Amino acid sequence: CGLRGIPDACVQKCLTFPEKTYAYDCALLIGFIKDGIEEVPVRIPPQNPEAETHFRKVEHTFLINVVLWRKLIIFGGTSIIAAVVDIFVFWYLTKYVLTGVRYPIIVGTVIARIISATLNYNLSRKLVFKTNESKRKSFSQFFALTAIQCAISAMSVHFLEMLIDGAAVPIKIVIDLFLFFVAYKIQDKFIFVSKK
């Protein structure tokens, strides 16, 4: 961890991190970087190279990685929940509700996607990015991104399936996995941006 001098103005922020030991130090530095707080290097007396370290490689490396990847892991979890809801709503609508409708698959897909995307938006806003950005603005941006994502996925799967004469499902998995990471970065950088 090293020696850290924390200004009085930042002490309250230091108390908001629940992590312990090396994971706490990692979370603290990430939080400061996000808030634009600069780290100023200082000279300290040389340390004894023979001194015993408190760093436990497996445990502390795991905890530090949880801190580093936590947001992406939670984002993945909320996306899986939304996908399960999407599939369940689609199944329920096409099996029990839309039996007399002319295009049950299209109507069911649209309704299920609206419901699952709304859920995904709220989970992402509250659990993943914890933003104070305007809800109206971020909501419209999120749905625009979702619509673009759906269109890119559908067109890419359609054309690649014809081009390489492959099965649609494996192609869709690869494309959607790529779009998952792209969507995460767009949401993190442009949609759910916390105001300083």
Characterise the protein shown here.
There is one protein chain. The protein has 196 residues and is mainly alpha-helical. It is 70% helix and 0% strand. Helix 3 runs antiparallel to helix 4. It is elongated and about 80 Å long. The model has no long low-confidence stretch (mean pLDDT 83).
State the secondary-structure class. Answer: mainly alpha
Order of secondary-structure elements = HHHHHH
Strand count, sense and barrel status of the largest sheet are: none
Mean pLDDT: 83
Fraction of residues in helix: over 70%
Tally the helices: 6
- Low-confidence runs: none
- Name the overall outline: elongated
Q: Could you give the topology of this structure?
A:
Blueprint: H1 11-14, H2 21-34, H3 57-97, H4 104-128, H5 135-164, H6 168-191
Based on the model shown, name its key terms.
mainly alpha; 0% strand; 196 residues; elongated; 6 helices
Summarize this entry quickly.
This protein has helices spanning 11-14, 21-34, 57-97, 104-128, 135-164, 168-191. With 196 residues, the protein is mostly helical. The longest helix is centred in the middle third of the chain and has 41 residues, at 57-97.
